[in-house]
Every structure is written in C-alpha cells, then in structure tokens.
Design a protein that fits this description.
With 536 residues, the protein is of the alpha/beta class. It has helices spanning 13-20, 24-33, 52-59, 79-88, 94-103, 107-111, 116-132, 137-151, 161-171, 177-197, 206-219, 235-246, 262-276, 331-342, 363-373, 434-452, 469-473, 481-484, 499-533, and strands at residues 10-11, 50-51, 225-228, 254-259, 282-284, 301-306, 343-354, 377-382, 395-401, 412-417, 423-424, 430-431, 464-468. Helices cover 45% and strands 12% of the residues. β4, α13 (262-276) and β5 (282-284) form a beta-alpha-beta unit. The protein is globular and about 75 Å long.
Amino acid sequence: MSDSEFAGVLVSRPDIARLAQVKRPAVTNWERRHADFPSPVDSGVDIERFRADEVLAWLSGRRVSANALLPGEPPGTTYGDRFRAGLTGEKAGGLLQTVERLAGPEADRLRGPMPLDRYLEWLLHFVVIQIVEPDSMTSAVDSWGVMVRDHDPPETTFPRRLLTELADRLGGTTGSAQEGRAAFDHVLVRWRAAHAREGGAFFTPSSVSRVMAGALAAVRPGAARVHDPYGRAGELLVAYLDALTAHGGGVPPQVGGRVAGNRERQVAQWNLRVHHGLTVRFGEGPVTPALAPFADPSGAFDVVLTNPPFGRLLEEVEPPPYWSYGTARRTEFDWLQYAVSLIAPEGRAAVLMPAGAAFNGGAAERARAGLVEAGAVECVIALPAGLFTLTAVKTQIWLLRAPGSESAADPEVLFVAGEHMGRQVTRTQWALTDDEIARLVGEYVSWHVARVAGRSFAGDPGLSRVVKVSGIAAHGHSLDPSLYVRTTGPASGARATDPAETRDRLTRLTEEITTLHGRAEAADAEVARWLRRYGL
C-alpha cells in the first residue's frame, strides 16, 4: 500500500499513540505545540478522528531520538516509520535493515568472487527499483539479466542467481520515502568507496558537497539552469537541490551535466531520481574540457558546480578559446577557466580545487592573476585534510562569478580559513560538522549580503577576511586563505598524531601513489584517445 492509499483511513488519538508507539499524552502535546499538526475531520462520530495519510506525512518529519529507539530500530527512524509499519503490519525500518545486511555482513557470502563494487552496483539498482517502481521488480530482473549477460561474463564470477536473490530479499520489504533515501545512500556510500579502491573516481564527500551547494543555493535561489560538467555520481546536483528545498525553493527547470562514463551516468541518474524524482540526462565528458571545448554553451548557466579531476598536464592540446586568463596547462586551471566561461551574467560557480592551485607559481600564477584581476574570483574556502576516502589531499572551494557582470566591478576576494575544522569519523577519515558547514556557508552569504547592500564586511577574526585585488597582487596573486587569515588560539586547532597513526598514513600514501600511477597511465590513454578523435 502506498502512502496516498491511507487517505481513506481514519485514526483516533489513541490509535496514533499506539501506532507511533508513544504514550497517549505525547499526541496531545504534539497538537498543542505544533500549529501544523493535522486537524481532525468530521467523521460523523463522537470521537475525533484524523486522516491517516496526513498524520503519516507529519510524523515522517519527526525522528525518534537515539535514546528512544526500540530494539532493532536503526538511527534515523521516524515516528512516521513506526506509524506506517503499524498500519501495514510490517516492521519499521524493514527496507533499511535489509539493505544494511545485504551491503554489510552478507555481502561477501552473496557475491563470492564477484568484485565488491560491481556487487554493490547490482544491489543499488534493485534498491532503486524497490523505492520508485516496486511492482516492476520481476521485469527488472529480466532486463538487468540481459545486461549482465552482455557485459559481465562469465557466470562463475557474476552469478545470475544473485539477481533473483537480491530482488526477492528487497521485494519483501517496505519503508517510507525517507527510509528509502537512507537505504539508497547507505549503499551509495559503500559503492563509492569500493569503486575508488578499484581505480575509479574519488567522489565528493557529503560535507564538502553541502558547503558548495549551500553557498550557491543561498546566493542564487532562483537559478533556472544548473550544470555540473563533471558530474561523478550526481552528488553535487543532489546537494544543491537539497539546499534549495531547505530554503523553500523549487526544482529548477534545467538540471544536468556530464559524466566520465556509463557506470557513473547510471548511478548519477539513480541519485537524482531517488532524492528528487528527476529524470536527468547526462552527457559524456572527457577528463578535461580542453579536449572538447565546445561541449557546453558558454555563458549559459545560472549555477555551475563541479569537482573535476586535477593534477595532470596538457602538453599537446591547442589552447581553447576560453583560456583568456592565462595558458596554464594543468587540468585544474583548464577546469577553472572553463567553469568561468559557462557562467551566465550574475550567475555563480563553485569548483573544488587542490590547495596548490592557490599558490603555485609560473603559468599557474599568471592564470590566477588573470582570473583575480578580471573579478572572476569571489571567495576561496580552505578545507581540512582527510575529508576524502583513500586520500589525504587538501582542497579548497573556489566560488566564481562572470567577469564583466555588475557584481565583478571593484573586485575583492573573501578568504575563509577552514583548515582547522572537522571531526574524525573513522580511523582515517574526517568530516565537517553541521555547525562547521553552517559557519563556512554563513561567512560567504554574509559577505555577499553586505556587498549587495553596499556595506563593508568585517569578517570573523581567525576565520575570514576580505582583501582587495591590490592586496592580493602584492602577494603574487596567491589565493591561499592562510596567507590572509591569521588563525587564533593555541596550536590553531592543529591535530595531534601519534607514531602509529603516522606509520598508517605513510603506508596508505604509498598505496595511494601506486594507485595514482595506474590512474595516470589510464588518463594518458584517455587523453590520447580524445586527441586522436580531434585529429591532434
């Protein structure tokens, strides 16, 4: 039964308490304290009753606190999950719990010799089917089986029986829309880590996506055309639409981008479908836009956000027309200038960059100077190390605008030093907290609001500072926030390490270097293929 089918079901206050598994006074408290709690309907009886679908929708927005969870309930369970489960006779959290088992303790037994990233991709596919089209599970097994026979031989490594088993296990579960998204994200996180270990792409960490998307959604809430020219798994577009929703905005009429290959395209499409009900077509794009400089129309997008590949050299490429700020043949400066070329007047872009792009000399400095002097750079936010899976690379978020626009007149740059932020979430990985994300986004938004109003922005000592272009030029056009923002406090929030952790990091770095060498060879082959395609 879908949630809409509960519209004909009426429940009393004792029913609500029983189904949500709370005490009876809790329902009265909800009514008194929350003006948006559903109103009772005239059911023609003495006892007031409520429409079950309206109660379910309201309860689905209220999470059960960690200390009130019942045995077997996963974190994130809502009172709506309990209420729905009570109405249907199912167990609350059934979908998410099944997915957690299939992606975790049972994964090795089920996949056998099958690569983990491919197993998780199969699981992700059937989770999507169970969320958006549960009645088509049987036909999905058949169609996916045809694809498997064509692309994943042999049977000994990619067992066809696994398709039926995954479909059967997931087909017997139910869950709310919120639980479905949580189940999808649970598998997606595991797939992204496994895909990266197998030589695939590094995906944007959630906390980084939220800073990039939150900043753009706040200053460009009415954007009609949103584009990610290197979309990976669609995580930045999802984060942007999440941020718009939080601001009360609707989905833009044009959302799209490009991805590196078919697997990323499929996962990105699933991601947008599950989280925002969108069917998005992604085009194919090369590892750097200089290989296809006319793939996207210039000046066409209100919002551009991307996490491009970087750290490679373009030796044999003819300078594309958008290299108007300097001929720097490192891919990060190719992507930066390309992103600027895509921005519509008064549009904005957020591009994730390696920290070295802010201070490298030579051709990089000349391109950086061109971007700064043209007023294309609005803000640089430094991020802490350790945010990415399998790499400790330090990154920054560059927020850009279209040169020649009204907002680019009398340019200045906001520097935000967030290197000291973050908390350790696993032995090897860090993440920004909700409060830290809000602070980083808040600095940029506050500066933007002040600038629009014609006021100066004082910044936050130890966190942010505004610098005029003349002051940046005096430092060789360096855009390293640590050069302009002097952090305060003992040790400036530096993290302490012990010898064992240092040894672990050195081991991981050695493994990472080996992996990156392999990727570099693959990237060189890809560049050569595109060069041949364009007769270069």
